[in-house]
Design goal:
Elements: H1 15-20, E1 28-35, E2 38-48, E3 51-54, E4 64-65, H2 72-88, E5 93-97, H3 106-116, E6 120-131, H4 147-157, E7 161-166, H5 169-185, H6 194-203, E8 208-215, E9 218-229, E10 232-240, H7 251-264, E11 269-274, H8 284-292, E12 296-306
Parallel strand pairs: 3-5, 10-11
Antiparallel strand pairs: 1-2, 2-3, 2-4, 5-12, 6-11, 6-12, 7-8, 8-9, 9-10
Helix pairs in contact: 2-3
Length: 308
């Protein structure tokens, strides 16, 4: 059934993703909405202590629709039906980590339907993404950049950099070490573990890309990208080595390579993720950097409905 959903269905709502995160079958919840016998869409989640969370162990979840631009009645009916089914199952609270509105024409309708039915905004992040459809027909992603940034990237492209894919072993340890040290240097809590990165790569070999950027053979930056929908990539983690010793940060070139690769492999969006802190406060430096590499701004919300 997943191949009938837009983009093949969100990776974070798949049974393989729940398997990876050891979600017991009894906690998994799924609602399928049909209209006149045809499937309209589904809402997937995990129930714990009377709370249904769509986006469990993930940045976001939310409904998957069959149509990329569904009519209002389809989306409202799906949301109404899902809330009624959750209530009947004894759920007291529904929490939906909504995907960014740029993912499909359905996302603003999902937000409207939830708010109309009593949802409140629990959290809102500043989110940034690169619209890969803005790349000109000649495929030159440098056109997305300002003059100075494009000049720097062109200069870096002439230097002995190499971007390689990582599967496991020592390279995975190096990749994870760069990410972990970068987070620690910025005062952030630990991210995904090395073992988890290896497991998710094995579980989704066609949808998870682990990349290591080297300069003259020395690792200087790394990134983790998920193909969350058939034509949407999500940057899950990235960072440069705290002691890279280069004249310019390798992040400019890394961003360019990620944008180019996502476009080349059929993505229409590269979601660079939140540029705000845990409390929603904007991270101005990060927001500025992402904008400088071609990103536009949006939001990512968490909506909560209390069921009576």
């Amino acid at each position: 059934m997943l191949d009938t959903l837009v983009g093949g269905g969100l990776l974070f709502c798949s049974s393989r993703f729940h398997d990876l995160n050891a979600v017991a079958g009894a906690r998994r919840w799924r609602y399928e909405h049909r209209r006149d016998g045809r499937l309209v869409g589904v809402l997937d989640g995990v129930v714990s202590d009377g709370v249904l969370l769509s986006g469990h162990s993930a940045p976001f979840g939310g409904p998957d629709l069959v149509r990329s631009d569904p009519p209002v009645e389809d989306v409202v009916g799906l949301v109404e039906g899902a809330l009624a089914a959750a209530r009947a199952a004894g759920v007291g609270t529904v929490r939906i980590r909504c995907r960014p509105s740029e993912y499909s024409a359905a996302e603003p309708l999902v937000e409207y339907a939830l708010l109309h039915l009593g949802a409140t905004v629990e959290h809102c992040d500043l989110n940034q993404y690169v619209d890969l459809r803005r790349i000109p027909a000649d495929g030159d992603a440098l056109a997305l950049l300002g003059r100075k940034r494009a000049r720097d990237v062109r200069a870096d492209l002439r230097l002995p950099y190499q971007l390689t894919d990582v599967d496991d072993g020592e390279n995975l340890t190096v990749l994870h070490g760069i990410l972990a040290a970068n987070r620690a240097a910025h005062g952030r809590p630990p991210g995904l573990s090395r073992d988890y990165l290896g497991e998710v790569r094995r579980a989704f070999p066609d949808r998870v890309r682990l990349s290591l950027l080297r300069h003259a053979g020395r690792p200087v930056a790394s990134a983790v990208v998920y193909r969350v929908l058939r034509d949407v990539d999500l940057l899950v983690a990235w960072g440069d080595a705290v002691d890279h010793g280069l004249q310019r940060s390798p992040m400019n070139l890394l961003a360019h390579h990620l944008v180019t690769r996502s476009a080349r492999t059929g993505a229409r969006l590269l979601d660079l993720g939140p540029s705000s802190e845990k409390d929603g406060t904007p991270n101005l430096g990060l927001a500025h950097f992402k904008r400088s590499v071609g990103a536009s701004t949006g939001t990512r919300k968490v909506l909560v409905v209390t069921l009576g």
